Amino acid sequence: NGAGKTTLLKLILGEVEPDEGTVRRGTRQTVAYFDQLRAQLDPELPLTEVISPGSEYVEIAGERKHVIGYLGDFLFAPQRARSPVKSLSGGERNRLLLARLFARPANVLVLDEPTNDLDIETLDLLEELLAGYDGTLFLVSHDRAFLDNVVTQVIAAEGDGRWGEYAGGYQEWQRVQAERTAERELAREAARRAQPAAAAAAKATPARSNKLSFNEKRELEALPERIAALEEEQATLQARLGDPALYQQAPQDVPQVKARLEAVEGEIEAALARWEVLETRADAG
């Protein structure tokens, strides 16, 4: 809550302008925004007029359909079709909003907390409609099961104004976060183990051997560049693992990328420990 989900949607839709940077939008976007429709409902209008003003028919996915039959798809009995909006319960209003939403010719749907106040029947209907929708869907929801059933990508707030994009639903995002946490903990543990080992190695070195050999001097000079190269590779691998395209286009590569990242992190820790040992001896000599 308060991370800026609705603000992000409004930036995407062009309803607000960014304080910094730019937003690039497609030129052929036709957007249907669920939250806007809620505010536009006229309580005096009959349901048929809400769905198809001035016409008995509505066009859905290129197919002409009678408005009463269309309302029947949204669980409204024929006798309710000409009732005014004000006669509907909260759940029925939400169902009517969904009917109106999907009756609009749009290639982008925006749903901000659409499952609030939906009964089980309507929730199942919404999931079915979204599964068959061919356009792009932006969905904000706290309903984790609904997200897992509907979405193919997650955009998650990660703090400090940063947002990450992940392939899969909510459970997949949780799995990635758990793996990242475990990897960070392993790296911290490796660093903690390396520090005493480096200190012990420095202490164990006899005073007469503190002076670096020619090869050790060359090794010490090369270590900063090697560490920088390893850290650059580490950043590249982390970026790959955070890119949804990897999981969509080359899922078979994920284990190898993860294994290489773990190996690189181990090499970085070892190089840092070695650098500390050589630097300590060089200073003492």
Core attributes:
single chain; 285 residues; mainly alpha; Rossmann fold; Helix Hairpins; 2 domains; two-stranded antiparallel sheet
Shape estimate: elongated
Strand adjacency order, main sheet? 1-4-5
Q: What is the mean predicted local confidence, pLDDT?
A: 83
Highest CATH level, the class of the largest domain: Alpha Beta
Largest sheet: 3 strands, parallel
The CATH H-level superfamily of the largest domain is P-loop containing nucleotide triphosphate hydrolases
Number of domains: 2
CATH architecture of the largest domain: 3-Layer(aba) Sandwich
- SSE class: mainly alpha
Uncertain regions: pLDDT < 50 for 5+ in a row?
Answer: none
* Proportion in β-strands: 5-15%
Query: Remind me, CATH topology of the largest domain?
Result: Rossmann fold
The overall strand count is 7
Question: Explain this structure to me?
Answer:
By secondary structure, the protein is mainly α. The protein folds into two domains: 5-151, Rossmann fold; 173-284, Helix Hairpins (Orthogonal Bundle). It is built from eleven helices and seven strands. The radius of gyration is 29 Å and the shape is elongated. The model has no long low-confidence stretch (mean pLDDT 83).
